[in-house]
User: Fold NUDIX domain-containing protein from Nonomuraea diastatica.
Amino acid sequence: MTSGWTRVADVELPDGRHLGHRLVRTAPGARVVVTDGHDRVLLIWRHRFITDTWGWEIPLGRIDEGEMPIAAAAREVEEETGWRPGPLRPLLSVQPLNGLSDSLHHVYRAESATRVGPPADPAHDPGRRLLLPDLPDL
Assistant:
């Protein structure tokens, strides 16, 4: 699977005007909301170079060619956090950048996780668990 591309399309608006609209094609993604019995969620403190900002994120990754979305979701959580999620339950599939990108993201939920070691990629924070009520304050 290719990593993606960007193009400009000639779009005709309802009033007949034309504009160049950017299209971004990316690989589909899978993410998991991992919670536990204490109202906590597994998040990653991560730097994003495009905006040069740090922020909390739910583990997310690309679905490899031929890979089932649910398998990609479990793999990405473990690679990015060092936690293996419990049984996954589908929540929704969504186009997070609808109108700009056609990247379909499959979102799952796990109500448990087991620590299996450090993240596979040293660039990732080791994963942190936060109390859900504190999230709006972040």
User: Anything to note?
Assistant: The radius of gyration is 17 Å. Helices lie at 69-81. The longest helix spans residues 69-81.
